[in-house]
Design goal:
Blueprint: H1 5-10, H2 16-30, E1 37-39, E2 53-56, E3 59-62, E4 68-71, E5 74-79, E6 82-87, H3 95-100, E7 108-109, E8 113-116, H4 124-134
Antiparallel strand pairs: 1-2, 2-5, 3-4, 5-6, 6-8, 7-8
């Protein structure tokens, strides 16, 4: 069972493990003094609802019914085809696409997610510099 940041990162084969370590080192520095959270991807009943995710910073989600839930501001998750980076709380769903347009490299950018196969596919400096401005 995955239950910690180190276990999660260590569960991936190379070269994905090294890519996750590099991203993790950069992302935790964006939120100095804050603990990194770990979401195992399971709901309360044990059903898989998402890939396991490392979370950096804090963001409060406000639901239509008025309820709130604490989650991460920046998320890092490995999947079968690569790595996903999530940025929560962006109201302008075109912002990431405009920010990264042709500068990031081989990545798919949506309203809150940046997906790429491996770290070598993207410009890490562009990713980190841009995320620094958004968090």
């Amino acid at each position: 069972m995955l239950d910690s940041v180190d276990t999660y990162i260590g569960s991936h084969p190379e070269p994905k493990r090294s890519d996750l370590i590099r991203l993790h080192d950069h992302f935790k520095n964006l939120f100095p003094g804050e603990a990194v959270s770990f979401f195992d991807g399971l709901d309360d009943s044990g059903k898989v609802v998402a890939n396991p995710t490392l979370g950096y910073g804090k963001h409060t989600i406000q639901y239509a019914n008025g309820a709130t839930r604490e989650t991460f501001k920046l998320g890092l998750s490995a999947n079968k085809t690569g790595i996903s980076v999530y940025l929560m709380g962006i109201s302008d769903k075109t912002l990431l696409l405009r920010m990264f347009a042709d500068r990031l490299g081989k990545a798919k950018v949506t309203g809150y997610c940046i997906r790429f196969g491996k770290l070598a596919d993207i410009d890490l400096d562009v990713l980190v510099d841009s995320l620094t401005k958004l968090v």
